[in-house]
Structures are given as C-alpha cells and as structure tokens.
Write a structure and sequence with these properties.
The chain is mainly alpha-helical. It has helices at 3-33, 39-88. The protein is built from two helices and no strands. The protein starts with a helix and ends in a 20-residue tail after the last helix.
Length: 108
C-alpha cells in the first residue's frame, strides 16, 4: 500500500471510529428514554465515551501530524528538484533552496 493510500485509510478509519462513537452516544440516549439508564448513568456513559473519543482522536491525529510534516518536507524537496530540472531545460522557474526542516503551522 502506498504512503498516500495508507494515510487515506487512516483518515477514513478515524472517521468511522468517530461515526461509531456518535452512534453509541445516540444509543445511550435511547436507553435513557426507555428507562434502562437513569440521567446520572446516561451522563456517566456519555462522559466516559467522549473521553475515549478525545483520547483516540488525539493519538491518531498526533501520529498523522508527524506523517504530514514529513510528507510536506519530502514533497517540497521533490518540487525543488523538479523545478531545478526544468530550469536546466530552459524553463523560467522561481529559485528556492530545498528545505531541511518543515516549519510547523502555528496553532490557533
């Protein structure tokens, strides 16, 4: 599997995980409406489930951030090589030096 395909599969799997958690939260609400769970039990289940969701999202997106940073640098350097090749062939391309590190985007 290519790196790009693997990233797509990870993003898709994360989406499926979050979709499943939303279904679980909805189901807890139905159980409360049916009288199986009381309000306090419902809230406990919701908090635990949402905490698990946040932790899973954090772990996966942290791993993806590292991959995205690596890919950004790798692809930027490939672009620089391609532009250098075009310049050698007579194309007018802007000159830039290959990056050794990728600048992280500031968090808002």
């Amino acid at each position: 599997m290519s790196r790009s395909s693997q990233k797509f599969t990870i993003y898709q799997t994360l989406f499926t995980l979050n979709q499943g958690i939303e279904l679980l939260l909805f189901t807890f609400g139905e159980l409360e409406q049916l009288g199986v769970l009381g309000p306090d039990q419902l809230r406990s289940c919701q908090i635990i489930t949402e905490e698990l969701q946040a932790r899973a999202n954090h772990e996966v997106t942290e791993a993806l951030q590292k991959r995205e940073d690596e890919d950004a640098v790798r692809l930027q350097n490939l672009r620089f090589e391609w532009e250098a090749r075009l310049r050698v062939q007579g194309e007018n391309m802007p000159t830039q030096k290959p990056a050794k590190t990728h600048k992280k985007l500031s968090k808002q």
